[in-house]
Amino acid sequence: MSEDQSLTFFSRCLRSRSFMVGGLMTAFLLVCAAISLFWTPGSAYDITITNRFLPPSAAHWLGTDQFGRDIASMLMTGTQNSIVVAVVAVSIGLSIGVSLGLLAAAKRGWTEEIIMRLSDFSFAFPAILSAIMLTAILGPGGVNSILAIGLYNIPVFARLTRGTANSIWTREFVMAARASGKGRFRITFEHVLPNILSIIIVQATILFAIAILAEAALSYLGLGTQPPEPSWGRMLNEAQTLMFLDPMQAVYPGLAIAIAVFGLNLLGDGLRDVLDPRLSRKR
C-alpha cells in the first residue's frame, strides 16, 4: 500500500462514525482484558462471605456479589474469557470455512456441490441450539464451547467465500491468468483471495460479536466456561435470583455483553464502508 493509499484509508476511517465508535468500544474491552492479565481492583476468585453485597467504594468499584467477590474484577477477568473463546472459535471457522469455500469455487462440479450441501445441512439447525447440543454431548467447558461455536462458523465462511470467489473467477484478469497457463490453485491465492479478503474481514468481525453472545448464552445455561473462572453469562445466571435484592448484579454483565456486541457490530459496519467506499456512497 502506497503512502497516498494509506492516507486515503485512514481518512476514510476517521470519517466513518461507525468505525470510530465501534473501534473505541472494542478497544476499551481489549484494554480491560489486557490490564486484567496482571492487575484487577480486587479478587475475582476469593470468596469472603463477610464482604457480600458491599456497595461500590474505592476498594470495590462496583461492589461485591453474594459470595463477596469483587464485581469489577470479575467483569474484567470475564472479558478475557469472552475474547479468547471468540478469537479461537472464529479462527476455527475462518481457517476451515475459507479453505472449503475457495476449494469449492476453484474445483466446481461435485466438489462444490458436496461442500455446499453440507453447509445447507448445518444451517438447518439454529446456531445456539447446535452449540447446546454439542456441549450437552461433549460435556460443559470452555474448550467444548469453543468447538461448538467454531463448527457453526465454518459453513458461514464457506458459503460467503464460495459466493464471492465465484464472482471473481468470472473477471477478465482471472481469465487472463488462466490463459497465461496459471493453475487454479495459484490463481486462487494470487488473484481470488486478495480480492475477497476485505469481505472476509468484515464477516469475521460480525461473527466475533456473535461468538461472544453465544459464549455468554452457553455460560448462562451452565454449558460454557466453568467455575471458578468468571464469565459474563454465568454472572447473569447467578444474578437472576437477586433481581429484587441487588438488581445491579444483573445490569453490569448485561451491559458488558451489550457493549461488546454493539461495538463489534459497529466496527464491522464501519469496516465495510472503509474497505468498500462504494457502499457508503450508496447510502
TrEMBL record:
<dbReference type="InterPro" id="IPR000515">
    <property type="entry name" value="MetI-like"/>
</dbReference>
<protein>
    <submittedName>
        <fullName>ABC transporter permease subunit</fullName>
    </submittedName>
</protein>
<keyword id="KW-0812">Transmembrane</keyword>
<keyword id="KW-1133">Transmembrane helix</keyword>
<dbReference type="GO" id="GO:0055085">
    <property type="term" value="P:transmembrane transport"/>
</dbReference>
<keyword id="KW-0813">Transport</keyword>
<feature type="transmembrane region" description="Helical">
    <location>
        <begin position="192"/>
        <end position="214"/>
    </location>
</feature>
<comment type="similarity">
    <text>Belongs to the binding-protein-dependent transport system permease family.</text>
</comment>
<feature type="domain" description="ABC transmembrane type-1">
    <location>
        <begin position="79"/>
        <end position="268"/>
    </location>
</feature>
<dbReference type="InterPro" id="IPR035906">
    <property type="entry name" value="MetI-like_sf"/>
</dbReference>
<feature type="transmembrane region" description="Helical">
    <location>
        <begin position="21"/>
        <end position="39"/>
    </location>
</feature>
<feature type="transmembrane region" description="Helical">
    <location>
        <begin position="83"/>
        <end position="106"/>
    </location>
</feature>
<dbReference type="InterPro" id="IPR050366">
    <property type="entry name" value="BP-dependent_transpt_permease"/>
</dbReference>
<keyword id="KW-1003">Cell membrane</keyword>
<keyword id="KW-0472">Membrane</keyword>
<dbReference type="Pfam" id="PF00528">
    <property type="entry name" value="BPD_transp_1"/>
</dbReference>
<dbReference type="GO" id="GO:0005886">
    <property type="term" value="C:plasma membrane"/>
</dbReference>
<feature type="transmembrane region" description="Helical">
    <location>
        <begin position="118"/>
        <end position="137"/>
    </location>
</feature>
<feature type="transmembrane region" description="Helical">
    <location>
        <begin position="250"/>
        <end position="268"/>
    </location>
</feature>
